[in-house]
Structures are given as C-alpha cells and as structure tokens.
Amino acid sequence: MGTSIPSDIHVSYQFQRRRCGRDSCLRCRYGEGHGPYWYAYWHGSDGKYRSGYIGKQLPPGVQLSVRQQEKARREALHRECEHHDGGEAIWNDALLRKNVKGEQ
Description:
By secondary structure, the protein is an alpha+beta fold. It has helices at residues 26-30, 66-79, 93-101; strands spanning 12-18, 34-43, 49-55.
C-alpha cells in the first residue's frame, strides 16, 4: 500500500463507495460503484488534507463514533438488499428504511 496512515495525529474514517471511471464497468454504470471500503482522512504536517485507502475492514483498535457506526451498519444492510439478474446489488432505499426502523 502506498499511503501510510499516521498514528500520532487525529484521523477520521469514512465508509465510502467509489467509481472506477471505466466505461465498461457495469457496477459504476448501473449500480452504486465499488465498495463500500474504509478510507482514512487527516491533515498532513504540510497542512494539506490527505486520504488513504484502508479496505473492507478497519485496523484493530480503531474506535468509531456513533455516527460512523450507524453509517457502516446502513452500508452493510445495502449489501444485503435485493439483487437483479446480473447479480449486482440494487440499492432499495424503501427496504433500507424499513430495516432501519425495524418495520416488517
């Protein structure tokens, strides 16, 4: 991995989907892109805002805020949503709202 994530300063973590930019990619064309994956964000010693790819799992010992935990839980629910014939996940917000609120 090219970017090393600092351990001595404040680092924020986000669970995100990304688009690869290839014209032939069906995930990006018809779906929500690739991921979700964890990314780290911090301000470097030069004052620039930096980011680094982490992957599907956070490193051990990382503590998430309640907001980040809820966002990660919602993303996991999205991965379990309906699938179309091509096997790609379809994001179904109505189903997600039902699952989040605990409705049947």
